[in-house]
C-alpha cells in the first residue's frame, strides 16, 4: 500500500510541477518510441492531442516494434517507451535503462487465417494446438520477424509447442532457445503488424496478430479470426521512463507527465472509450477500477460487463 501511495504521490507532484512551473509551460518536445499497434489503430492520434495541449508539449512518436523501441531507449535516443514485451521490459529495467514502469492497458493476440482454413484450426481456443496443426499441415504462415512484442509472443508459443516452422525441434543445449528454421511455408516480413497482415492476406496465410490492429485492418484483408480466447494470448502494454541516471539528457520530467496522464482517470477513460468498427480495442488497467470489459474485442453495448 505504501508503495502504491508513493507512486501516486510522485505522479501528483509531477503534474503539479508541470502546471505550475514556467519552464515546463514553455513549448517542448518529448520523444516516445512505441509499438506499431498504438499508431496503426489510431489510438495515439486520439489520446495524445489533449495531453499536448494541456502541457504545451509536442510528442514525437517513433512507431517500431517493441524490441526496436527498447533498443532506442537503451541508446538514450528517446525519453519514454510504450511497449508490450514484459520479459524485455524487465531486462531493460534490471539493466538500469528504465524506471517507473506502469501498466496502462491490455488486449489480446489472435491467430488469423484464410477463409478456407487448410489447417482446420477454426474454433480452437488453445493457441499452441493451433500452431501445431498449422505446422503439421505446412500451411503458409507469415511472421513479423522483427523482434516486436508480437514476434516474441509467437516465438514463445512455438517453443511451448515443441515445434518450429520447419518441423520438430531437436533437443537444444541446456538453457538454449530452439531456433526457428525457415521452411517454404514459413515467411518473415521484418515489418509492422499492418504490413504483415497485408502480406499474409496476399499469401492466403495464417498470422499471429494483436486484435486491435487486426480490427483496424479487417476491412482491408480477407483474413478472419480462427483462434482466440487462450489466456496465453493476453497482450499487456506498459509505459516506462528512460532513466535519467543512465541517460542524463533524457526528458525525465515530461516523460513522467505522460506516464501520469496515461494512468490518470482521464487518460484511462480516453483509452477505454476508444473504439474502431464498433469494438473497444484497448482496455485500461492502470488500476483495477479502470477495467470495464471482460473480454477484449467486445462491442460498446457490452461495456457494462465487469471482468
Whole-number mean pLDDT: 84
**Which parts are unreliable, with pLDDT below 50 for 5 consecutive residues or more?**
1-9, 20-24, 166-181, 289-307
> What's the story with the biggest beta sheet?
8 strands, mixed
Question: SSE order in H/E notation?
Answer: HHEHHEHEHEHEHEEEHEHEEHHEEE
Structural class determined from secondary elements: alpha+beta
Short description:
By secondary structure, the protein is an alpha+beta fold. The protein is built from 12 helices and 14 strands.
Structural description of this entry:
The chain contains 12 helices and 14 strands. The protein is α+β, with helices and mostly antiparallel strands and 307 residues long. It has 2 domains: 174 residues, D-Maltodextrin-Binding Protein, domain 2; 125 residues, 3-Layer(aba) Sandwich (D-Maltodextrin-Binding Protein, domain 2). β12 and β13 form a beta hairpin. α1 crosses α11. The longest helix has 19 residues.
How is the secondary structure organized here?
Layout: H1 2-20, H2 22-25, E1 28-34, H3 36-40, H4 43-55, E2 57-63, H5 66-74, E3 80-83, H6 86-94, E4 98-113, H7 127-137, E5 141-143, H8 149-161, E6 163-164, E7 167-168, E8 186-188, H9 193-203, E9 207-210, H10 211-217, E10 224-227, E11 234-242, H11 252-262, H12 265-273, E12 275-276, E13 279-280, E14 283-284
Parallel strand pairs: 1-2, 1-3, 5-8
Antiparallel strand pairs: 3-11, 4-9, 4-10, 4-11, 4-14, 6-7, 12-13
Amino acid at each position: 500500500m505504501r508503495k502504491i501511495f508513493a507512486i501516486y504521490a510522485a505522479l501528483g507532484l509531477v503534474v503539479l510541477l508541470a502546471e505550475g512551473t514556467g519552464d515546463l509551460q514553455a513549448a517542448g518536445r518529448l520523444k516516445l518510441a512505441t509499438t506499431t499497434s498504438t499508431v496503426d489503430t489510431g489510438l495515439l492520434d486520439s489520446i495524445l492531442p489533449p495531453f499536448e495541449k494541456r502541457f504545451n508539449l509536442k510528442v514525437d512518436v517513433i512507431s517500431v516494434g517493441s524490441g526496436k523501441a527498447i533498443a532506442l531507449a537503451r541508446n538514450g535516443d528517446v525519453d519514454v517507451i510504450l511497449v508490450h514485451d514484459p520479459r524485455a521490459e524487465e531486462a531493460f529495467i534490471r539493466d538500469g535503462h528504465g524506471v517507473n514502469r506502469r501498466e496502462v492497458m491490455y488486449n489480446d493476440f489472435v491467430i488469423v487465417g484464410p477463409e478456407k482454413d487448410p489447417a482446420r484450426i477454426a474454433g480452437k481456443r488453445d493457441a499452441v494446438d493451433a500452431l501445431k496443426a498449422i505446422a503439421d499441415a505446412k500451411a503458409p504462415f507469415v511472421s513479423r520477424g522483427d523482434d516486436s512484442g508480437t514476434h516474441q509472443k509467437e516465438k514463445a508459443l512455438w517453443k511451448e509447442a515443441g515445434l518450429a516452422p520447419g518441423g520438430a525441434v531437436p533437443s537444444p543445449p541446456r538453457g538454449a532457445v530452439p531456433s526457428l528454421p525457415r521452411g517454404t511455408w514459413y515467411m518473415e516480413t521484418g515489418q509492422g503488424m499492418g504490413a504483415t497482415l497485408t502480406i499474409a492476406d496476399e499469401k492466403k496465410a495464417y498470422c499471429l496478430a494483436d486484435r486491435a490492429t487486426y480490427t483496424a485492418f479487417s476491412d482491408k484483408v480477407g483474413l478472419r479470426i480462427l483462434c482466440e480466447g487462450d489466456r496465453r494470448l493476453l497482450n499487456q502494454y506498459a509505459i516506462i521512463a528512460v532513466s535519467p541516471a543512465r541517460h542524463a539528457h533524457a526528458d525525465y520530467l515530461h516523460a513522467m507527465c505522460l506516464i501520469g496522464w496515461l494512468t490518470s482517470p482521464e487518460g484511462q477513460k480516453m483509452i477505454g472509450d476508444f473504439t474502431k468498427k464498433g469494438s473497444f480495442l484497448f482496455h485500461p488497467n492502470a488500476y483495477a477500477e479502470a477495467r470495464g470489459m471482460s473480454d477484449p474485442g467486445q462491442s460498446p453495448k457490452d461495456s457494462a460487463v465487469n471482468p
